[in-house]
Amino acid sequence: MNADGSGDGGGRGAAEADYRARFAGLLQGPARTRARLVEEVGNGFADTVAAWRDTGLDEAGAARRAEAEFGTPEEVAASCEGELTLAQARHTAAVVASTAPLLLACWYLLGHAETARDGWLPQLAQSLAAGLAGVAGVAAVGAVLALGATGRASRWVAVPRRLPGAVGWLGTAASGAMAGSAAALTVAAALATDWPLVALAGVASAACHAGVASSARACRRQVRAAARSA
Amino acid sequence: MKADAVRGHLDGLLLAVLEQGPLHGYAIITAVQRRSGGALDLRTGTIYPALNRLERQGLLASDWESTGERRRRSYRLTESGRAGLAERRADWRAFTAAIGSVLDPAPGGAT
């Protein structure tokens, strides 16, 4: 099938493959959710084409009637945007909720690490720990609340329109705390007697930062894209 | 019936056609169209995100099933879904009774 839906459309299945590719190209969001929607919508469109083909239409005619009935890839993708934005927000919230407690554990470890010498750095590290742990704790609580609000609770209470954006910024704050934590733990490791453990905590913190930052960025990008197309 | 009017009742329609047993997406579409006599103006591809939403809300559950060359996602009502459907039915009956009594008053009834 040609881009405008006319022409002979090639062999059987060409229109379905074209529709699926156009639809997949319009989606943003977590890969698993996108893959599921592409497969379901692609198969649904193929079933619709087959039903029109069974009425005696040729391939191009069946594809045109199917698209009119099923919706264009743009129409169907637009209807998926809300769910994909929420899926991305839930993914980000889950990453924050599962990694922020690890940050707290890292700082607990630092608090109990023996330092080779007393000095200003351990004290500074302790003050920094309190601030970063506070950010991580607030982010974890916020993430759990967001997961609750976008799950079964959304049956009774509509999800606030700004919630996905708030989750994106919450993730950004948590990832910032994790980056600070990774840097502080790296420096502290140089001064700690049991430095391998503290260094390991720094590496874990850096890994968490990478995961959360990437998800939070994707969440903010998706919210911006949804706002543009609204 | 206009798409906007249908959209407000889409969740109830989807839950209702799944009451008899599990169905995959296209079978749900054809069941809605068959039951409505084709009167509902709805881009049928847009039911897929609605099914996703109902599953996220715990009203539906789903699994992949292989049929021939394709995998299809089969949806079924959960207990919460049955309760949700009963609630929507009760709301709809109350709504239509109230509107009906105004639009089409019984002869000799209160004015």
UniProtKB/TrEMBL annotation, chain A:
InterPro entries: Perm_prefix_1. It comes from the Bacteria. The chain crosses the membrane at residues 92-110, 130-149, 169-191, 197-219. The keyword Membrane applies. Keywords: Membrane, Transmembrane, Transmembrane helix. This is Uncharacterized protein. The lineage of its organism: Bacteria, Bacillati, Actinomycetota, Actinomycetes, Kitasatosporales.
From TrEMBL, chain B:
Residues 14-87 form the Transcription regulator PadR N-terminal domain. It comes from the Bacteria. This is Transcriptional regulator, PadR family.
